[in-house]
Amino acid sequence: MKKKYMLLVARIIVYMLVLGALIYYLYQSPYNPHPQNAEDIRKWVAGFGLLAPLIYLAVYTIRPLLLFPTLFLNLSAGVLFGPWWGILFVLMGGLGCACFCYLLGRFGGGRWLLNNFGGSWGERLKIYLTGSGSFKKMLWLRTVPIFPYDPVSIIAGSVLLPIRIFIMATVLGMLPGAIAYNFLADSFGTAKFYAAIVVTILAFGVPMFLWQRSGEGFTLKK
User: Do residues 106 and 158 make contact, with C-beta atoms less than 8 angstroms apart?
Assistant: First the structure.
């Protein structure tokens, strides 16, 4: 038992050292823009010219390792690519990030981390996603704004949620938010700004209301 415990501790230390070294390298890299707002992201991405779309998608995909908020990328897409193309790029970037976290959960020790450090909340999400109706449940987790995006993706990978269900629910669940963010970014400084605020509130408020009415919140708390 003592030897098994020591091996577990050694695995934790090695895993954390490797992950910490990778995050530190990416965070300290001169290529990390360290943005303070969405405008910093827009200027940095736009500086790559014709490669800007690819840079945007690449940065969005590995964003969890760069340690800056998704909000900056969501708001900068509409300014960089226009409101309609911006929706597409937010969806593509968000899906890339989701799949990156999903793969970390599936092949990068996510199941082990969930079992050992997930706590009661991680255990509830694990049980929730492995039950019947996984597409509907994953869709709720994507549309209701109280669930953290990256941990949900990691847990989905760790419980081996089928990738097809994961992708479809992720894209569909991100769509209202992608539309709202691009409408909001396109409306800054215009008469449409207050309408965009209303659209944003509805995009996140309506799913929250429907989720509570559906009883899914009670199911997850069991």
Answer: yes
Contacts of 69 (CB under 8 A, 6+ apart): none
What is the distance between the alpha carbons of residues 155 and 195, in angstroms, rounded to a whole number? 36
Mean pLDDT value across the chain: 79
**Which of 132, 102, 94, 161 is CA-nearest to residue 219?**
132
Q: What is the CA radius of gyration of the chain?
A: 19
Using alpha carbons, select from 77, 100, 71, 76 the residue that is nearest to residue 89: 77
In this prediction, residues 136-158 reach a mean pLDDT of: 89
Question: What's the pLDDT at 173?
Answer: 94
Longest dimension (CA), the chain: 68
Q: Does the pTM of the predicted model rise above 0.85?
A: no
> Whole-angstrom Cα distance, residue 76 to residue 32?
16
42: its two tokens: 């827009």
Tens of pLDDT, residue by residue over 30-59, are 555 666 666 777 676 777 788 888 988 988
Q: How many CB atoms lie within 10 A of CB 48?
A: 12
Question: CA-CA distances (angstroms) from residue 60 to 65, 127, 137, 213?
Answer: 10, 29, 25, 33
**Amino acid making up residue 104:** L
